[in-house]
Amino acid sequence: METTTPSTPIATARRAYNAYVQQYDTKRQQFPGVLLAGVFTLTEPLDASWPTAGAWRYPVGAPSGLSAPAPEGIPGFKLNRGLEYEGGRLSHDGADLANGRGGDTVRAAASGLVVLAASRDDGYGRRVVLAHRLPSDDVVYTVYAHLAEGSDIVHPGDRVSAGDAIARVGQTGRATTPHLHFEVRLANDPSMRWENTRVTDPLPF
User: Fold this and answer.
1) Rounded CA gap, 32 and 65, in Å?
2) b vs e for 172-201, b when ≥16 Cβ sit within 10 Å of the residue's Cβ?
3) Do the beta carbons of residue 131 and residue 185 sit within 8 Å?
4) Which helix H or strand E contains 26, and what residues bound it?
5) Beta strand pairing status for 105-107 and 95-98?
6) Which residues are paired to 62 by β-bridges?
7) Is the pTM higher than 0.70?
8) CA 169, CA 75: separation in Å to the nearest integer?
9) pLDDT 10s digits, 5-44
10) Residue 2: is it exposed, middle or buried by C-beta count within 10 angstroms (0-12/13-18/19+)?
11) From CA 63, how far away is CA 72, in angstroms rounded?
């Protein structure tokens, strides 16, 4: 005769916890060796030292308020353009943040790992892409584009903390004025090319 485990609150909680641990371990095992964001091979040592994202901040200006002047005397930034839709589809994938000039510091919005720092002859121009590990072990990418050519000071494989300088505001790519194009993308599949992952509104995130 089969015996069954009593469905007590403690037993139910234990089963839920065991299921969570199994799911967490499965996620952890999928990272080493993966082509993160479709562009960067994540080694086991880097995976082990890849920090969780932690607290988030604005990538330009004051960390706590986009329009507030930064301590260094940098004028406040404003949102020139946000997510836009055309025919039910996204036609603009991020937030354009500007303060009327170029050259100001662009900072990591959260702790993470640099997976791309490159120039392309396309709309983004000079861009840096960071991969962030959430406490749930899900992956989020932040994209910083139209950067001033030659201003980025990070390289693929570098670990960064929230607020670390990564580049300067520029006008590369398809940009009519100096500004930072900032994106947040959710990666259901860590190996999917970052450009193909799902976009979310970056400022509320």
Assistant:
1) 36
2) bbebeebbbbbbbbebeebbbebbebebee
3) no
4) helix 9-30
5) unpaired
6) none
7) yes
8) 13
9) 555 666 565 565 455 444 544 444 456 688 999 999 999 9
10) exposed
11) 12
